[in-house]
Specification:
The chain has nine helices and 16 strands. The protein folds into two domains: 131 residues, Galactose-binding domain-like (Jelly Rolls), CATH 2.60.120.260; 176 residues, 3-Layer(aba) Sandwich (Rossmann fold), CATH 3.40.50.1110. Strand 6 and strand 7 form a beta hairpin. The strands form four sheets. Strands 1, 4, 6, 7, 9 and 11 form a six-stranded antiparallel β-sheet that branches. A five-stranded parallel β-sheet has the order 13-12-14-15-16, sandwiched between helices. A three-stranded antiparallel β-sheet has the order 8-5-10. The chain is α/β, with parallel strands linked by helices and 319 residues long.
Length: 319
């Protein structure tokens, strides 16, 4: 009954426990499951997914179960007619609850509820009144591939992760396939993927180079990235592809050898992007070089940092 209200999911599974939206193909989920418990948890998280519908209700209610936590935060964002109205932050590690939200707009209004990015959410016992699914077609289809920063670590408001902000600004459908700790990994791509994006944003790299000991190790990292981009180009033949190099992190200013590695990697990844006809984006230009814009004061952006990334990325792609 409610499957059609879930947006930005690859598919929605309905079970006796409720509605379970997923972001990946079955093959990809199995691959991440076999890599490690942590990657399985992160691949099952509901990053970028929302419930989106018209209703004449004065109040909406739904229950949820949360598991497979990447982080302990559980928060929901509520929009009415495209306006961010309220963020509801649950207690840390909340595994089951019921939310009731009184709507502020009268009559028929569009309601959009973003579910957490950093845990798996299953929704059940919905009461959203006399609702209708959204019939308007999105302007385009976007695909975001990357690590924890793409997944939304650590935006406390799920709709403020940069992929969701970009998609909202473009009135686009999006699929966020960020997975915390992920690197360029050719086996994470599925040749049988049924999602056909118009544009793809790839933001791997910081995990690829963070543990490297010296420049000699960089060659293998770049070879892996090369294989990944070759395979991606053959799967998504008609998509415009943006390659985002790593964003600024505190270590860039504190560790000279890491800075040199980072700069060399950025230069070579930019060359690889051009080799395949992709568009390189300088990640260092996307947010201020200041730890106050990072939730952990080192690597992962806070809501404010994601605001800058989204704003500057939209400028670059020519919104």
């Amino acid at each position: 009954m409610y499957t059609g209200i879930f947006k930005n999911a690859y598919k929605v599974i309905k079970t006796e426990e409720g509605y379970f939206p997923v972001r990946f193909t079955d093959k990809q989920l199995e691959y991440y499951k076999n890599l490690s418990k942590a990657t399985e948890d992160r691949s099952l998280c509901t990053a970028g997914i929302c419930m989106d519908f018209y209703t004449d209700a004065e109040c909406i209610t739904f229950s949820y179960r949360a598991d497979h936590f990447s982080r302990r935060y559980v928060g929901f964002d509520f929009y009415e007619n495209g306006i961010f109205k309220r963020h509801i932050e649950e207690a840390l590690d909340t595994k089951q609850s019921t939310l009731t939200y009184p709507l502020t707009e009268k009559g028929i209004k569009r309601v959009t509820v973003y579910v957490p990015n950093l845990s798996r959410i299953r929704v059940y016992d919905l009461d959203i009144g006399n609702f209708q699914c959204i019939k308007e077609q999105p302007s385009q289809k976007l695909l975001f591939l990357g690590d924890s920063i793409t997944q939304g670590m650590v935006a406390l408001s799920p709709s403020l992760a940069f992929p969701t902000q970009v998609a909202r600004a473009l009135n686009a459908q999006s699929l966020n396939r960020g997975v915390g700790s992920a690197k360029f990994d050719v086996d994470s791509l599925d040749e049988q993927d049924k999602y056909d994006p118009d544009s793809i944003f790839i933001a791997y790299g910081i995990n690829d180079i963070y543990q490297l000991k010296d420049m000699a190790d960089l060659e293998n990292v770049l070879k892996t990235a090369d294989k990944y981009l070759y395979k991606l180009k053959n799967i998504y033949k008609h998509a415009k592809v943006y390659i985002i190099t790593p964003i600024w992190c505190l270590r860039y200013d504190e560790d000279q050898s890491f800075k040199e590695m980072f700069d060399e990697y950025q230069k070579e990844l930019t060359t690889l992007a051009k080799k395949y006809g992709f568009i390189p984006v300088n990640g260092l230009a996307l947010m201020p070089h200041d730890t106050k814009y990072h939730q952990d004061h080192t690597v992962h952006p806070a809501d404010s940092g994601f605001n800058h990334i989204a704003e500057n990325l939209l400028k670059i792609i020519g919104r």
